[in-house]
Design brief:
The protein is 60% helix and 0% strand. α4 (87-95) packs across α8. By secondary structure, the protein is an all-alpha fold.
Length: 215
């Protein structure tokens, strides 16, 4: 009996979601194909109908809400509307949020997997670069026209978000980690001139002074 339409795509999604959770929690080297397929409620035998190897799956797992239209935000209390005019401020607040910090299994893979990527092959590195470039593009689109060198500002903001969360996750002291996230959020919002609370662009001297200090 043939499978229903959409079965292949739905099953592949289950495998990717299972792998994302497991890779984020345990790292690439400590997760087997059997664990991934078990987490998806499937048997090992079906894996190779969808991926040639665990490395191929790893590259696909690196996609997230910047590149994957099917990605579902699992961070409670956090909303990101990629069509919003203040999407950059939303992204910054979401990325450095307490919810993202605590939800390791559903992390953006750029936070959980950078060390694994650096040891991986070309395909994984290109996938990482693609996701980072997509994040930069989202941030750049929301910058005001009067911001000098918007691409550089967007790159620095993205790196501050990703790097800030990586360092915070590495800290044993939770209070210090929370202070670091808060500081990175304020600096990232300041780079593009977004108000911390409302997400609206700030005008005038304050934004100019912030950019000058960062540069």
């Amino acid at each position: 009996m043939p499978y229903a339409e959409g079965h292949h795509a739905a099953t592949k999604r289950k495998i990717v979601d299972s792998a994302r959770r497991l890779f984020n929690r345990h790292g690439f080297d400590h997760v087997s194909v059997d664990l991934i397929m078990g987490g998806a409620g499937l048997t090992r035998g079906g894996f190779y109908s969808y991926f040639e190897s665990k490395s191929d799956l790893y590259a696909e797992v690196l996609g997230c809400f910047f590149t994957d239209p099917e990605w579902k935000n699992c961070w409670e209390g956090v909303e990101v509307d990629l069509k919003s005019t203040d999407v950059a401020a939303q992204v910054i607040r979401a990325y450095l949020s307490r919810h993202h910090f605590e939800d390791v299994e559903n992390s953006c893979p750029m936070v959980a997997l950078p060390t694994d990527v650096s040891r991986s092959g070309v395909k994984s590195k290109r996938a990482f670069e693609t996701v980072f470039a997509a994040m930069v593009s989202v941030l750049e689109r929301s910058l005001q026209a009067d911001v000098r060198d918007p691409h550089t500002v967007a790159q620095a903001t993205a790196a501050l978000c990703v790097g800030g969360m990586v360092v915070a996750r590495a800290m044993e002291n939770r209070a210090s980690a929370d202070l670091l996230r808060d500081a990175c959020m304020a600096a990232a919002l300041g780079l593009g001139g977004w108000d911390r609370e409302a997400g609206s662009p700030r005008k005038g001297r304050k934004r100019t002074e912030t950019l000058a200090r960062v540069r």
